[in-house]
Design a protein that fits this description.
The complex is a heterodimer. Chain A is mainly alpha-helical. Chain A is built from 23 helices and no strands. Chain A has one domain: Sodium/glucose cotransporter (Up-down Bundle), CATH 1.20.1730.10. The relative contact order of chain A is 0.18. Chain B has a domain of 49 residues. Classes of the chains: A mainly alpha, B mainly alpha.
Chain lengths: 585, 74
């Protein structure tokens, strides 16, 4: 999700981290020791895991031995990059608590649906990837189209993460950009190349622990300084004369009653259904983590565990942004005003996206600051590693194997996977420098995700839940949905006023474009899939076993105590989800 | 993840948290004894002391609980 939307937000503000005002933080010796020991640890993990990644099952699927907790935390962490942390903290400063929608309605229902309903199909068909499922359901053409698009996206996103990390390190610490790029790429290549998915998953769980330890202290101290949540609300109201910063749904009645320029229909259907379900149920980067679980129940529990933690993340992402509205002051005692990157001046030198480092620098002294910076570095490296490991799998299974060498040995494919990791890193470095040369490219790279995710949801849902969907229907639906998304993006890009037609309102703003474009892409994909399917011959029912709901016998799971039952925990999570939405209404 | 004869991820996490906790907690003690506080807001709450201490305890728990050979959750 980070890749889909926050990137757009960052890009829309003109590559937010791009113009360093001044170095925000200065490290002490203890901070440097903390950062260095993180690198030592990840390399140790990579070297240790090398001996456990000799077969393709080990290298690409982590041996399918992960417990529900490991798969769940990894499932969440693959999405919890630093681009997301810093970007959404900036969004919270800019838009208020509305940004939390991307963590709650934009994630929780989809994650639960993934765990309870879709995971059994992914798991029992024993595919190695989402394109692999499309191959089984719709044939080779859909697999190759989806595989090539996904491989292209992941590798570009890895480069964007690399560049974003280098830029943040430059802004926050004054590090040289090339040094950061080379250092991070070498470390990621080493630990993913050696340990494959298992290594990426280990480091994602490590990153999860670091983010909680490194970032959680900021909102705790911030709330103490602000005098608690109610005082924070009162101060925001006093400073900005509006209550929209602290209400989730109140301002969503119309496009012009909130700073985002969106309406509840866009949030509920565009974000809550298409984008969220598209990302959490079809993006192989996250799905791969759940598929690495040791059995079906663990695979189902993984997204549910991830959803429980996902709901808590606004506490250390959104809350610091809100706190920044009242606690950040200039040296002369006046309230600090963070602005969009293209509006930074000598008087207002900092942008929204620097709010998290600014808050860290405000509260964290020696040691704790190093821990916070390490959490950010871990987030970036994890983002790179996640993309590269997913690329390596899709490249090997969905492009190399069907198109280049069908009959290779298992060790040959492991070797291809390792080389694909190195190749992926090299291309990522190229992307990072490309983005450095032309900042606008980042905007296009981010937009690519929205092109593919929404139509892919339509295709996968049709494949899994509609027996009549045919091979041609799946392929043409995916293609038309993608083309629709690209065309709408280009239309608004060339003629900004076209947004009123795409989002159904002259008051819609840029954020609404993403939400409604996704709805259009999904709808066109679904429509074409249905029409073409009715015009073509479906597969016999016997060939759909294990792939389609209603034609598959799901494995009977042994009864377990209530506390280990996935439906029980899903019910708890969805209840808490409704409660937080009501509390912050 | 816990496979017989292999090191659990929780052990790695425990080691790192214990190391970080020890460093930060140690610095917190130095702050308390010397009275030299860093120029950050709420420095008088001695966050390194209690946050570092908490990390140290958590890290030690995981390091011992999931130490190689001591991991009964395999």
């Amino acid at each position: 999700m980070a890749r889909l939307l926050i990137g757009n937000h960052i890009a829309q503000s003109g590559l937010a981290f791009f113009l360093p005002s001044s170095v925000l933080a200065h490290l002490s010796i203890i901070d440097i020791v903390i950062i260095t020991s993180y690198f030592v640890m990840v390399i140790w993990i990579g070297v240790y895991l090398k001996g456990q990644s000799n077969t393709s099952l080990d290298f690409f699927m982590a041996g399918r031995q992960m417990s529900a907790w490991i798969a769940g935390l990894s499932f969440l962490s693959a999405n919890l990059g630093s681009l997301e942390l810093m970007g959404w903290a900036g969004s919270a400063y800019q838009y208020g608590i509305l940004a939390a929608h991307w963590y709650w309605i934009g994630a929780i229902p989809a994650m639960l649906f993934m765990g309870l309903v879709m995971m059994p199909f992914y798991y029992i068909c024993k595919t190695n990837s989402v394109p692999g499922y499309l191959k089984l359901r719709f044939g080779e053409s859909s697999r190759v189209l989806s595989g090539v698009c996904f491989a292209f996206m992941t590798i570009l996103m890895s480069g964007v993460n690399m560049f974003a990390m280098a830029l943040v390190m430059k802004v926050v610490l004054g590090w040289n950009i090339s040094f950061s790029i080379l250092m991070s790429s070498l470390v990621v290549a080493l630990y993913v190349g050696l340990g494959g998915l298992r290594s990426a998953i280990f480091n994602e769980v490590l990153q999860f622990a670091l983010i909680w330890c490194g970032a959680l202290l900021v909102p705790i101290l911030g709330l103490i300084e602000a005098g608690g949540w109610h005082n924070l609300q009162a101060k925001i109201l006093m400073n900005y004369h509006t209550s929209e910063y602290t209400h989730l749904w109140k301002g969503l009645g119309h496009f012009n009653t909130n700073a985002m320029g969106v309406q509840w229909t866009g949030i509920v259907f565009g974000l809550g259904f298409v984008i969220s379900f598209g990302y959490w149920t079809t993006d192989f980067l996250v799905v791969q983590r759940a598929m690495a679980a040791k059995n079906l129940r663990a695979a189902q529990m993984a997204p549910i565990i991830a959803a429980a933690f996902k709901m808590a993340i606004p506490f250390f992402v959104i809350l610091p942004g809100l706190l920044g509205l009242v606690v950040l002051h200039n040296n002369d005692g006046t309230l600090m005003h963070l602005v969009g990157q293209d509006a930074t001046t000598i008087a207002n030198p900092n942008s929204y996206n620097e709010v998290l480092p600014l808050m860290m620098e405000r509260y964290l002294g020696p040691g704790l600051l190093g821990l916070g910076i390490t959490a950010l570095i871990a987030g970036f490296m994890s983002g790179m590693a996640g993309n590269v490991s997913a690329f390596s799998t899709v490249w090997t299974y969905d492009i190399y194997k069907p198109l280049i060498k069908k009959d290779g040995s298992d060790s040959h494919y492991v070797s291809v996977g390792r080389w694909a990791t190195v190749l992926g890193i090299v291309v990522s470095i190229g992307t990072a420098y490309l983005v450095m040369q032309a900042a606008g490219i980042m905007d296009y790279v981010q937009a690519l995700f929205s092109f593919f995710i929404a139509p892919l949801l339509g295709t996968v849902l049709a494949g899994m839940f509609w027996k009549r969907a045919t091979k041609a229907g799946g392929f043409w639906g995916l293609l038309v949905g993608t083309v629709t998304s690209v065309a709408l993006y280009a239309w608004v890009r060339v003629e900004p006023s076209a947004l009123r037609y795409v989002a159904f309102s002259p008051d819609a703003k840029a954020m609404a474009a993403d939400l409604y474009r996704a709805l259009w892409a999904f709808s066109s994909c679904a429509l074409v899939t249905v029409i073409v399917s009715y015009c073509t011959k479906p597969k016999p029912l016997s060939e759909l076993a294990g792939l389609v709901y209603g034609a598959s016998e799901l494995p009977q799971q042994e009864p377990v105590p209530l506390l280990k039952n996935q439906w029980f925990w899903a019910a708890i999570v969805i209840t808490v989800f409704f409660i937080v939405n009501i509390v912050f209404y | 993840m816990a496979i017989p004869g292999k090191i659990s991820i929780w052990f790695f996490i425990g080691v790192l948290l214990a190391f970080y906790g020890a460093l930060i907690f140690g610095y917190g003690i130095y702050e308390l004894i010397s009275g030299v506080l860093p120029p950050v807001v709420l420095a008088k709450l001695y966050a390194p002391l209690w946050w570092g201490g908490m990390m140290l305890v958590l890290g030690l728990f995981y390091s011992i609980r999931f130490a190689p050979g001591n991991d009964s959750t395999s």
